[in-house]
Design goal:
35% strand
Length: 92
């Protein structure tokens, strides 16, 4: 992504879709944004469809995958209790 971050803590774990041909586990960390990395070489992932900064105010309406993260990120932002292990992602 061409940015530097400082990882703070593991916040969420989400497993892949039931029925996928491989087992995927996503580890989501809370990080501090440090800044852009000038002249960074970006190595694309053929399975990634893109990335962008999302507004917390409109997060429930934004395309976000795994989608189970939406409500948990909002709870984290509001200093409410969150679950770490979110289980398998659904097809929704």
């Amino acid at each position: 992504m061409g940015i530097e971050v400082e990882p703070k803590s593991l916040k969420f774990i989400v497993e892949g879709l039931r029925g996928e041909s491989f087992h995927r586990v996503d580890f989501v960390f809370l990080c501090d944004y440090i800044g852009k990395i000038e002249n960074a070489k970006i190595h694309e992932d053929k399975n990634q469809i893109g990335f962008e900064w999302l507004s917390i105010e409109n997060l429930m309406n934004e395309p976000l995958y795994p989608s189970k993260l939406r409500s948990q990120i909002i709870r984290l932002f509001n200093n409410e209790k969150t679950d770490v292990y979110l289980g398998n992602e659904s097809m929704e």
